Amino acid sequence: MTSDSPLISVIIPVYNRDRYLAEAIESVLAQTYPAIELIVVDDGSSDRSAEVAQRYPLIYHYQPNGGIGSARNAGIALATGEFLAFLDSDDIWVTDKLSKQMAAFETDPTLEVVFGYTQQFYSPELDETFRQSIRCPEQPIAGYLSNMMLIRRSTFLQVGLFNPELKCGIDIEWYGRAAEQKLKMTLLPDVIHLRRLHETNNGLLEADQHKERLHVLKAMLDRRRQVQPDQSPAAS
Question: How would you classify residue 16: left for phi > 0, otherwise alpha for psi between -120 and 50, otherwise beta?
């Protein structure tokens, strides 16, 4: 990669995640890819998230709490990169995540979206009782989600912004719209993202959010049956 490498805008939304935010930011700043614009959108945090974020060379933006979809959309509005990438404030990227994904775009310039695998892990502070209460898969999982995605900005805007009304299932709903447009996607065989399991994971324990996720899936499937009745729904 050279100094002429396309700029990637990385967006981290944060809401009361000062405990984990520094690790997320540092995993972006440690990327081997040279052209990165990092944007942290503080979604109305009441903890030390602002203090943590502003220690680093990045664009910091504060907004009243509106949810992760709203925060990501605010970051997109500030972004100037040719490509977009997203990372949750409690997760981590491996150091060559962006380099591997950009290499895929260079190999096939017709690609529009590149995904990869995620490996889940227990956050170190968890006690054994909580670890026993949630399952942490040992094998990597194919990640058709925003944290594992690198996408051309023009392609993302073609699909549309994240739905700010949803509390969960945001990635599923967006991916459903992307799949309907038959974007050219590829899945790298590499683990590029580490998902932290901890006591306050969004949607991990809340039954009402599971119901909303099912509602999102049903709406997506109903829409796809109307548009493409002969095709099976994409998994995510």
Answer: left
Counting residues of the chain whose pLDDT is more than 70, the rounded percentage is: 84
Q: What is the mean pLDDT of residues 187-202?
A: 89
Q: How far apart, in whole angstroms, are the C-alpha atoms of residue 36 and residue 88?
A: 17
Token pair belonging to 63: 């907004």
Residue 220 has pLDDT above 90, yes or no: no
Residue 141: strand, helix, or coil: strand
For residues 174 and 117, give the distance between their C-alpha atoms in angstroms, rounded to a whole number. 18
Query: Which domains can be identified in the chain, with CATH numbers?
Result: 8-227 (3.90.550.10)
Compute CA distances 212 → 88, 145, 164, whole Å. Answer: 20, 17, 14
On the CB side of 146, CA atoms within 13 Å amount to 26
| CA-to-CA separations, 193 to 14, 57, 171, 178, in angstroms, rounded | 17, 22, 15, 21
What is the total residue count of the chain? 236
* C-alpha span between 52 and 90 (Å, rounded): 13
Q: In terms of Cα–Cα distance, which of 131, 105, 110 is closest to 120?
A: 131
Q: According to the model, what pLDDT value does residue 225 have?
A: 56
What value does the mean pLDDT of the chain take? 88
Q: DSSP class of residue 147?
A: G
pLDDT of residue 25: 98
Tokens 């109307």 belong to: 226
Quote the pLDDT of residue 200.
Answer: 76
Closest CA to 31 of 150, 123, 124: 150
